[in-house]
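Q: Could you fold this chain for me?
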Amino acid sequence: MITAVLLAAGSARRFDGSQKLLALVPTADGPAPLVRLSVSALLDAGLTHIVVVIGREAEGVRASLAGLDVRFVLNEEHATGLSSSLRIGVSEATRVWPTDDALLIALGDQPLTGSGVLESILRTVAERGKRSIVAPRFRGELGNPVLFPRALVPELLEVSGDRGARGVVERYQSRVHYVDFDSAMPPDVDTVSDLAALTTRSRSE
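A: Sure. Below is the predicted structure, expressed as structure tokens.
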């Protein structure tokens, strides 16, 4: 089994002062919070063990995911950077599902619904097994989400700073299998203009 850890605790300093993960994005079924689209993409890809790390406006983020089968863990130190959320999420995931043999680290501000990225990663894992790091690469640039074998959990629990798990990928290059895409990286949402671009794209699909 694969556990997904969705990092949704950030302070959103580059947004307009509000919690970007609660910003509404148009969909065929009506407006939906950004973070709900990110979680829905994981569920649509067939993942059933999902930990969502919440922090800023935690209760609002939790409420926006009502009805979805996920487990929450609170990062009270979310302002210290991405690594604190990663460590807390990985710790909770391995505590709740100790026999799962891989972790998929995903971002709450990068909805991948309909992109095919998650499906390609999971298909690669099914073909190759769960002993490699599996990461998407968009025209040569490392992207997200990234899958890690259980053996690298100790490394994930030691990350620091605001780079998340990227340092682990760089440290174990010999164990990385890249899934290459001849397309631009799916957008994440850091600013109000990013949200506007995502909204425009969603309306055109």
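A (continued): The mean pLDDT is 88.
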